[in-house]
Design goal:
The chain has about 180 residues and is of the alpha+beta class. It has one domain: Umud Fragment, subunit A. About 45% of the residues lie in helices and about 25% in strands. It has two helices and eight strands. The chain has helices at about 1-30, 135-184, and strands at about 40, 45-50, 65, 75-80, 90-100, 100-105, 115-120, 120-130. It has an eight-stranded antiparallel sheet with strand order 1-2-3-8-4-5-6-7, covered by helices on one side. A hairpin with a 2-residue loop joins strand 5 and strand 6. Helix 1 (about 1-30) runs antiparallel to helix 2. The longest helix has about 50 residues, at about 135-184. The radius of gyration is 26 Å and the shape is rod-shaped.
Amino acid sequence: MKGKRIGTVLQYLLVAILIIVLYYIFLIFGATKNNEKATKVFGYRLFVITSGSMEPTFYEGDIIFVKETNSYENGDIITYTMNNEENPTTHRIIGIYNENSFLTQGDSNSFADPNPISKDSIIGEVVYSIPKIGKGIEVTQKLRYLLLVVILLLVWRLIYKRKKEKSKRRKIKKEIANNEEEND
């Protein structure tokens, strides 16, 4: 009897862990090209690369993880916004005017960006990327709530099916016990 209870607790624990994992997967699906809507996961903002200006380092559709830092150096890849634009830009620092002003350039661009970037405009430094899944994410963003409902329905069905099987087994055991009593 105790073993069955432990098994049931483990099943519910497994479902809870599955839901948590799915939640974090949906956070990744929250990656965006818009600064105001960017998902924040453990201090990182997730963005989708939307142009080829950083090829071959990043390609259109890659997801980047951006972390806010206190200092930036030549060669760092930063994500920043200019003139309160919604969609940020991700380029490499190629020059530092002072601690608060940086010259940037896209890796595939043959020219530097025309205006220096102030430290206040910087969202953070790119610290990690996941290639190619950004395009799929843009599609799934539109469907993510539907996907979440489908996944929750599948989890609910799994739990319901388990309860139904348990109930059926109890009923069969009860019938067997009744038949044994009648035969005695």
